[in-house]
Fold this sequence. Notes:
Chain A has a single domain (12-162), classed as CATH 3.30.1330.200. Chain A is 18% helix and 34% strand. Chain A contains 2 helices and 10 strands, in the order βββββαβαββββ. Chain B is an alpha+beta fold. Chain B has a single domain (5-196), classed as CheC-like (Chemotaxis protein chec). Chain B is built from 5 helices and 8 strands, in the order αββββααββαββα. In chain B, strands 1, 2, 3, 4, 5, 6, 7 and 8 form an 8-stranded antiparallel β-sheet that branches. The longest helix of chain B has 26 residues, at 5-30. Chain B is globular and about 55 Å long. The chains are: A alpha+beta, B alpha+beta.
Amino acid sequence: MDNNFFGEETAEILGLGELRVGTCPMGTIGLGSCIALILHDRRKSLAGLAHIMLPESHGNTDRPGKFANTATNALLEEMEKLGSTKFSITAIVVGGASMFEYSALSLNIGERNATAVKDLLHEQGIRIEHEETGGKVGRSVYFWPKKKGRLIIMRADGTCIAL
Amino acid sequence: MELDPIQKDALAEFGNIGAAHAATTLSQMLMSPIEMTVPEVQAIDIAELHNHISNEISAVVVFQIQGEIADGGYIVVSMPRETVIQLTNQMLGTTDTDREINEMDQSAAIEIGNIMISAFLDATAELLGIVMLPSPPALAVDMAHAAFASIVAQVAGDVNDVLIFNTELMSQAPPVYGSIYMLPNTELTQQLFLMLERLMEPLP
């Protein structure tokens, strides 16, 4: 399985609906309509990542990472517990692609996911530092929280960006 | 969701019948023998999905299960990129394997998926005595996990695990390889269990 993380030993790959806050490198592989929401506090070299699957929880609380609204709140709460403030946190939003062509099925939920996440960040007054949403390609995201943070997005068409 | 051994057996047999019919149709199309694995049935936690589905670039053809069971979940044929190119070549009599996926490959993938899945659903529905039909297909040529996650998002809104049927189909000449997955939603899963239980009851 393609779970390597450029040889990092402490790195974590998050599955669907998971979220984590910490200082270790984090990533998600194979984002389709899902969103990787990264909140980053560069002063503390701390980051939170959620692999969000759906825009709205409708009262479900057992997996906060699964839904845009619960994930955003849970990440913020946990980071604030560790001493971050909303003013020092910036966000990176990646994913929300529409994967299927010729589709009458309601599989293309990516756009709704992206809108939901961005609206929530806006409400909370969190600045979006980098955004790559929509389109038709799947993406893998890797993030190193240290200092200014380092972001790598690998796209299914073989292109790759590093920030 | 925990599957007990009897449920697992019953579901695997159910998948076996469907996949065998799909393999037969593929074999007839390619005029070549097709080998298949014994179907695996697993209840997978969504957070573990990336350990079961690779991230290889694949053609993923998706159908919604319709018919008597409206909106019953999804059924998927997934083939690596090389396989799709091989299949198109085989059917068109071309030989170029070192190329990108083109429109012809996309329609070939959809068509092959369509024929295989129709056979799969036909056979399994007959076993259960109900009508199951595939919706028109949707196609993604992308990271397999990314495509699957988008499907799982549709069936796992309220639950945290999905039932996955997986059968691999292989042929030597041409070298092709593919998998069939079925992701029934919660209602269809319950219905499957009920119907299979009835089938396993001893005759009076």
